[in-house]
């Protein structure tokens, strides 16, 4: 990034609330690196999970680890515990909300102390609307960025954040990671002048020539076998089971086709969905053709080992990081035609789209790709060209521009 050398102008604290390893973490790490490389910001990242895989995304000296006991995973487990009588579940939900509300003040204080300790002058929340972060920014009288990596909902604003009872502070910017997400932010009444659409960034990966062969050998995949891969946390809305069901007839008719399910279920409140996938594999005798790899930190080696990438979210995907990761690896990507994926992929040119939640439409796209090597290569090449639009360098510039124009920050015009 060709910025002129100068003293960092902003001290930014990024707050990451995730309790699992997913696309929001990966996207934040790309943006974080881009901002650090710009030389215009001096950053810290506050993480509410302490794991080697997450900590490895950032320079050790930039990480601040804290605990946050109330999170969406605990909420799911709590409600499952009360999943008997309807009245008990309602009591459980009310009790959890009350305890979470009280706990949020403690979290606000923790974030506020970090802001003051490191003289932070911009708070960037990486997981949408979080009361404790917004409250801490209000206490510290600094601007706040709400990075919506999911769709906005009216329920986000059920608590009062200030005496004016506005939905967001005046000195606040909301970033939507797609036009679909931005539309949802507008629909809950956030002023247009406080919203910017900025897609997630990606870095050109460095993949060794041996990566494809190494991964395929690991899972006993020969050169003439076609590998369909689906990436992400194993959870119902990501649609791994439904993908397996759609591709099963193809696998039974083509013994040289295989599936890699790359991801684990550690971010799920229970393992019933994973068990359903395993049951489907066993009942169809597909143990040699559908392979669960578990969590993998070196995902690009798995993209390299694949021939077709499938993205099968059962609900609209806010963006779809897997899609641009597959595209930048010159792979044919098949995805549902809604949300972020429909903005990224031009059907038939740089990927294939199918009707959401329609197994026959998905099956048709899978069948189209299986015996057409030329199609896979042609679309893969076009996909690579499309992915260049999402490189970290370009996206970082857009974020800095948004900081400057929306939040009255001190980033000078001449860096552009």
TrEMBL record:
Domain Glycosyltransferase subfamily 4-like N-terminal: 92-202
Keyword terms of this UniProt record: Transferase
Span of domain Glycosyl transferase family: 212-385
Pfam families, per database record: Glyco_transf_4, Glycos_transf_1
InterPro entries xref list: Glyco_trans_1, Glyco_trans_4-like_N
Keyword Flavoprotein: no
Annotated CDD domains: GT4_PimA-like
GO MF assignments: glycosyltransferase activity
Any single biological process term in GO: carbohydrate derivative metabolic process
Protein's name according to its UniProt entry: Glycosyltransferase involved in cell wall biosynthesis
């Amino acid at each position: 990034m060709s910025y002129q050398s100068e003293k960092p102008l902003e001290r930014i604290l990024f707050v990451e609330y995730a309790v699992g390893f997913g696309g929001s973490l990966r996207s934040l790490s790309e943006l974080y690196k881009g901002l650090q490389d710009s030389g215009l910001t001096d950053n810290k990242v506050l993480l509410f999970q302490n794991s080697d895989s997450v900590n490895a995304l950032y320079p050790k000296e930039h990480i601040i680890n804290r605990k946050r006991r109330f999170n969406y995973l605990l909420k799911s487990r709590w409600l499952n515990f009360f999943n008997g009588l309807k009245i008990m579940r309602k009591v459980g939900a009310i009790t959890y909300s009350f305890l979470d509300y009280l706990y949020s003040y403690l979290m606000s204080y923790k974030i506020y102390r970090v802001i003051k300790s490191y003289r932070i002058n911009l708070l960037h929340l990486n997981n949408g609307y979080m009361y404790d972060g917004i409250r801490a920014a209000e206490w510290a009288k600094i601007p706040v960025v709400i990075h919506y990596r999911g769709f906005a909902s009216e329920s986000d604003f059920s608590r009062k954040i200030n005496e004016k009872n506005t939905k967001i502070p005046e000195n606040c910017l909301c970033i939507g990671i797609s036009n679909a997400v931005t539309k949802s932010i507008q629909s809950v009444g956030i002023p247009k002048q406080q919203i910017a659409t900025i897609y997630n960034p990606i870095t050109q990966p460095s993949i060794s020539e041996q990566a494809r062969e190494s991964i395929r050998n690991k899972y006993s995949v020969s050169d003439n076998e076609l590998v369909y891969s689906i990436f992400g946390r194993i959870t119902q809305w990501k649609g791994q089971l439904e993908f397996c069901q759609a591709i099963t007839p193809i696998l039974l008719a083509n013994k040289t086709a295989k599936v890699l399910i790359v991801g684990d279920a550690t971010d799920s409140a229970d393992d019933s969905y994973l068990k359903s996938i395993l049951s489907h594999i066993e009942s169809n005798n597909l143990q040699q053709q559908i392979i669960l790899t578990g969590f993998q930190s070196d995902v690009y080696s798995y993209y390299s080992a694949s021939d077709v990438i499938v993205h099968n979210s059962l609900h609209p995907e806010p963006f779809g990081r897997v899609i641009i990761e597959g595209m930048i690896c010159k792979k044919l990507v098949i995805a549902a035609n809604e949300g972020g994926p429909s903005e990224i992929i031009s059907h038939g040119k740089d990927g294939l789209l199918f009707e959401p939640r329609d197994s026959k439409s998905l099956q048709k796209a899978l069948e189209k790709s299986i015996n057409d090597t030329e199609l896979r290569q042609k679309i893969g090449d076009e996909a690579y060209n499309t992915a260049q639009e999402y490189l970290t360098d370009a996206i970082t510039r857009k974020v800095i521009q948004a900081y400057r124009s929306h939040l009255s920050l001190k980033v000078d015009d001449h860096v552009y």
